[in-house]
What we know:
The protein is built from 9 helices and 9 strands. With 280 residues, it is an alpha+beta fold. A hairpin with a 5-residue loop joins strand 4 and strand 5. Helix 6 (167-186) runs antiparallel to helix 8.
Amino acid sequence: xxxxxxxxxxxxxxxxxxxxxxxxxxxxxxxxxxxxxxxxxxxxxxxxxxxxxxxxxxxxxxxxxxxxxxxxxxxxxxxxxxxxxxxxxxxxxxxxxxxxxxxxxxxxxxxxxxxxxxxxxxxxxxxxxxxxxxxxxxxxxxxxxxxxxxxxxxxxxxxxxxxxxxxxxxxxxxxxxxxxxxxxxxxxxxxxxxxxxxxxxxxxxxxxxxxxxxxxxxxxxxxxxxxxxxxxxxxxxxxxxxxxxxxxxxxxxxxxxxxxxxxxxxxxxxxxxxxxxxxx
Length: 280
């Protein structure tokens, strides 16, 4: 068995990848994004981000909303493309999570399509173990997604704090993640980024899968996709080989996470990413 502090050790060596493409993964880079010119096609896609009415499942894609309609309470997450805030909607007092994405960064990193995909998934699917989108709007330079806020924090935090979970608790989380993935797969979506950082806990201790930026739509039957993306520790062998893969990669990643919850580290973890790929 592994000592408690190994989850902390893993976090020190975690490598965030922020761009996907057929040529592979690129590390996120710090610093201010360079100015990006919006091409006509990109302008259309960004305008389509909001919509002009009530979306599926009652999601309010409201172009009249603006950042000033929400009170910023605290920063709860930071990424390569923006930040996530805990906010309070001023007219109702309801607490939400506000995901703020910078347009110029999305354009520069060619992430417009992935952002559109995430919004469509959040808007189109309702499930007890998936995060839901409540509002979407934009300003001249930023996109905003208003999501449910969950007080339990990330599964990663709890795993880091305790070192490992009991088999009973690991089985419980895995069962709920299985139902979440089954829902996505039935809707022809492969998730592609199972990891403890993307699993939130609600006030009752149930999971909510979040962050669909790497998800891929329209994967049916024997349809294969070839994009090399995800988080190194949880990648399936067929992703690394580059010969094409389907929804089965999500089950590999879930098995890897289950192993980590029970032992404290993913089964093939190594501080050298290339060695880790060889082990996988």
